[in-house]
Amino acid sequence: MASPFRIIDTGVREGRANIAFDPALIELRQQDRVPDTIRFMRFPPTALIGRHQDLSREINLDYCAEDGIGIVRRVTGGGAIYLDEGQLGWELVFHRASLGIPSLPDLAAAICNAAATGLRELGVKARFRPRNDIEVDGRKISGTGGFFDGDILIYQGTVLVDMNAAQMVRALNIPEAKVAKHDLDSAEQRVVTLKELLGDELPDMETIKAALIRGFETGLGVTAEPGEITEAEEALARQYFDDEIGSDEFVAEIDNPGRGDRLLEGTHTSMGGTINSYVKLEGPTLGILQRVLISGDFFVTPPRVVLDLEAALAGTRLEDIESTIERFFEETEIEMLSVIGEDFIASISDAIAKREGA
Questions:
Q1: 243 in the Ramachandran plot: left (φ > 0), alpha (ψ -120 to 50) or beta?
Q2: Residues 331 and 339 sit within 8 Å (Cβ to Cβ)
Q3: Taking the model in full, what pTM does it have?
Q4: CATH 3.30.390.50 fits 264-352, yes or no
C-alpha cells in the first residue's frame, strides 16, 4: 500500500516567505527527506504574479505600495492573483509515480476534479473548467497551476473563502478583454467566494481544509494524515528567500521589457493563455532577430524552458524562426500544461509583422 500523504499547514506568512517554502519542499522531496505532501497556506494582502509575467503590466504598483499590499513572483506559471487572509491556499507536492498518472494535463485534471469534489461537500456546485480553473456556475472559485521538477510535481490552488473583491480589482491590472471573454460587466463578477454562496452557513477554515483533504483522498485514491513541518524545510526556505525569492530583483525580473529599446511587441492568445513577445531586430534590412523576450500567463515546465528558447532564437534569421522553434521543441525535454510551439511562433510573428518603419 502506498505511503500516506503528509498534511501540513504553514499558516499566514508574508508572501515571499510563503513562496520560498515551495522550492524547499520540492528539493527535499527530491531527496526523499520528506514524504508526498498536502500543504495549506494563507497570505496577508498580496498581489502574486506568475513566473513568466511582466510585473508592471499585471500589477498596479503604486496602489500596492500605498496600501501595503505585498508583491510576489511565484515559481509556477499562470496569471496574476490577489490573495489575503480570507483565501485558503493548497498545494500537493509528490513523486510522479505516486498517482500512476504520467502526463501533466491528466494530473491537473485529476487534481482539480478532486478539489472540486471536496468543495461540493460544502454545498456548492464546484466543477473543473479546463485549463486550470474550478468554477461555480461559470464564476471562478479556485485557480490552479503547477509543474514538474524532475520527477516531483508541485500543483497549487486557492479557494476563495472570503475576499475584498474591490481591493483585488485595484491591485491587479485586469485586461478588459479577459472580463469580456466571460460576458461580465466587471472583474469582480468573474470570481465568487464561499461566503457569497453560503452566507451564514459558511464553514470555518478547518472544515474547508477537511473537505478538500477528503476530496483529494477520494478523487486521487490516496490517504493523508497530519504531519510535522521539518527544521530542514524551514532552513532551506529561508535560504531560498534570502538568495532569490525574497529579493526585489527576482520579483522585477520581467518588468516592462519593451521599455526604451525600440522593441516590437507581439501577442497571441490561445486556450493555453497569452504569450507576449518583445522582439529586437538588427541588420541592414532588419532581417535578423537580435533577441526576444517572452512573458505571459501560460504554463510551461520546467520554467527555464522560456529562457532556453530565448537563447536559441538569438541571432536567428527571420525566415528561420519557425524551423528553429520547431526544432527546439523537438529536441528539448518539456512537460507542457497549456501552450505549444505554434503559440510561440504566432506571438513572435505578430511582433515581426509590425517591423515596417522599426
A1: alpha
A2: no
A3: 0.84
A4: yes
